[in-house]
Amino acid sequence: MNDATVFGVPGSPYVRSALLGFEEKGVPYRLHALRLGDEKTPSHLARHPFGRVPTINHNGFELYETQAILRYVDRTFPGPALQPRDLQAAARMDQIVGVVDWYFFHDVTAVISFYRFLAPLLGVPTDESAIKAAVPKAKICLDAIEQLRAGHQFLAGNEISIADLMLAPQLEVFMATAEGQGLLANRALADWMAMMAERPSMKATTRERLRAAA
Description:
- The protein is an alpha+beta fold and 214 residues long.
- It contains 10 helices and 4 strands.
- The chain has a 4-stranded mixed β-sheet, covered by helices on one side.
- Strand 1, helix 1 and strand 2 form a beta-alpha-beta unit.
- Helix 4 runs antiparallel to helix 5 and helix 4 packs parallel to helix 6.
- The radius of gyration is 17 Å and the shape is globular.
- It starts with a strand and ends with a helix.
């Protein structure tokens, strides 16, 4: 029996990454949509003591942290594997996931994408100096990921993996900024993103689709 509920804010890149795992595995789930700010309510802090999203509840088993959720979904349910069997490909996947979590998110998503899209909704002034300082860091991230991809169809090889699911939601938002459009012009990662955008899992997890279904 599968009774999986995902708690998260539609539009959050990390929530979308978790949902991509369910979609790619063909596992049914229910999205319990939260509003911005609900992450800090007592009810959600009981699920996630750090006040972040997503979290999941699978038949009473609660789990937070996107990487952990994706690995759990992959190990628990049948369907296409999201982690390479080849040890070096698996290590490359883990390396790229680390780059996304520690560098791309902190230097790109949490700065450039935040100030261009989320800050206005929160009434936070746009910090142009912070954006300007983040652009060279964004270039380093893109250069590193392209080098690690090494010409494969997907990021860690020729099959989709957790690395792709972690990066795609964040890169899609970044590519909607002027800075992202400039840095991604004529890059192989832009073609990779176009390929990812056509996957049924990506189309099923757009913010508009999630809000309509909530």
